[in-house]
Design goal:
This protein is about 30% helix and about 25% strand. It is α/β, with parallel strands linked by helices. The chain has 2 domains: about 5-40 and about 200-270 and about 360-415, FAD/NAD(P)-binding domain (3-Layer(bba) Sandwich), CATH 3.50.50; about 55-100 and about 130-195 and about 270-360, D-Amino Acid Oxidase, subunit A, domain 2 (D-Amino Acid Oxidase, Chain A, domain 2, 2-Layer Sandwich). Its EC number is 1.-.-.-.
Length: about 425
């Protein structure tokens, strides 16, 4: 293939798109104001989760809604002013909490995650880091049997899509994770899930492959993007990059939470909200360890073994992307995590905070912008970008190359929200 393509955004989505397009023969420039993998892609739990096919707006949400609206849950917090300012998104999100939409979304996400998992494994082999993928799965843990019983729809969905799971009692949980406190009544072992003990480093490894094969990585702030003949002209901040403009044939927007503001200049009002999330890394005694990531369902947090400690990640906070941090959710998660595992001192000077961009149907947009030929979108991956990045790139690469998509791309079309 021939043609120059600029990929905007060097998180897991953008880096995967750059690698995919490069391998298809395009001349690719990857642009970000920061180094690859230093924003949202840095802060996750490192789980490539086969089980992340369940949208937040599943039919069981309605029973949980009164408690969630109390705004004291560890798994979910919200800024009332932000929710009020985004009522159209909220209405669209709740409207889709029904079985028909649930079935459609789970099928689409299952296709995307299975494709992504295969691509992750392929790239890990090429990069020589396959041995760094933890293949011990991860655990969904339930302090109360009643909570486990309420998860029947989710467990049935896993069975429907052949997600490899095993139900655990308290003794079996202790056998798998002997250093966890025996406070969990039930567990579900998601066996066909992988994890990586430094997610930012995995993104950097992909980016290093891209540059080693001739790809151009440009660290610069994007000042403007406009049509130029049959292509596009990118204007970069002179203070961050010596070359003021770049002319390309096509552009891929993979800017995560920054895509909403960026696309307004093209007249697109993208209904993205921000699932903000916090993390803190902790040290722990060397004789104590976690063998795999664990998700405390009742506690509303994930603990994941990292290369230099244990990472505690929170659930969702709906708030403006740049509003001040509210550490109360993280404090509640830490208290619950300390009941489960002997955390020592925090290893970070302050908690990390990132924003995960989410569309009302919990599916990303993967495809061409409706009114701009050559302007491609890979946005809205909510909290599962790490599990869906390579699959997103594979779909986008096939669409740009005018080939058949490896999976059904219809559920990810931009036109369902923007025209």
């Amino acid at each position: 293939m021939s043609g120059k393509i600029a990929v905007l955004g060097a998180g897991i989505i953008g880096v995967c798109c750059a690698v995919e397009l490069q391998r298809r023969g395009y001349d690719v420039t990857l642009i970000d104001k920061n180094a690859p993998g230093e924003e949202t892609s840095y802060g996750n739990a490192g789980v490539i989760a086969r089980s992340s096919i369940i949208p937040f707006n599943h039919p069981g949400l309605w029973k949980s809604l009164p408690k969630l609206m109390g705004n004291k849950s560890t798994s979910f917090r919200y800024d009332p002013t932000f929710v009020a300012a985004n009522m159209n998104w909220t209405a669209g999100f709740l409207k889709r909490a029904n079985l028909k939409d649930f079935n459609y979304t789970t099928q689409a996400l299952d296709d995307l995650i299975q494709l992504s998992t295969r691509k992750h494994e392929e790239m890990a082999s090429i990069l020589g880091i396959a041995d760094k993928l933890n293949r011990k799965g991860w655990l969904h843990l339930y302090r109360q049997k009643a909570t486990f019983d309420k998860s029947k729809l989710i467990r049935n969905t896993f069975d429907k899509f052949n997600v490899a799971t095993k139900e655990l009692n308290s003794d079996q949980i202790s056998n798998l994770e002997p250093d966890l406190a025996p406070i969990f009544a039930k567990g579900l072992w998601i066996q066909d899930t992988m994890s990586f003990q430094n997610p930012g480093d995995l993104v950097k490894a992909y980016a290093a492959y891209f540059t080693s094969h001739g790809g151009i990585l440009t660290k610069a702030k994007i000042q403007n993007l406009e049509k130029s003949g049959d292509g596009y002209k990118l204007t970069l901040d002179k203070t961050t990059h010596s070359k003021n403009t770049i002319i390309v044939d096509q552009v891929v927007v993979a800017l995560g939470p920054w895509a909403k503001t960026f696309l307004k200049k093209f007249g697109y009002r993208v209904p993205l909200v921000f699932e903000r999330g916090y993390h803190m890394n902790f040290s722990h005694d060397k004789e104590r360890k976690l063998n795999r990531p664990v998700y405390d369902i009742d506690g509303g947090y994930v603990l994941a073994p990292m290369s230099n400690g244990v990472r505690l990640t929170t659930g969702v906070e709906l708030a403006q992307q740049n509003s001040s941090p509210n550490y109360s959710q993280l404090a509640a998660a830490e208290a619950g995590a300390r009941d489960a595992f002997p955390l020592n001192k925090p290893m970070d000077s302050e908690p990390w905070l990132g924003s995960r961009p989410t569309l009302p149907d919990c599916r990303p947009i993967i495809g061409q912008a409706p009114r701009h030929n050559g302007l491609w979108l890979a946005i809205g991956h909510q909290h599962i970008g790490f599990s869906t990045g390579p699959g997103t790139a594979s779909i986008l690469g096939s669409l740009i190359s005018e080939e058949a998509s490896p999976i059904n791309a219809e559920p990810f079309r931009a036109e369902r929200f923007i025209t």
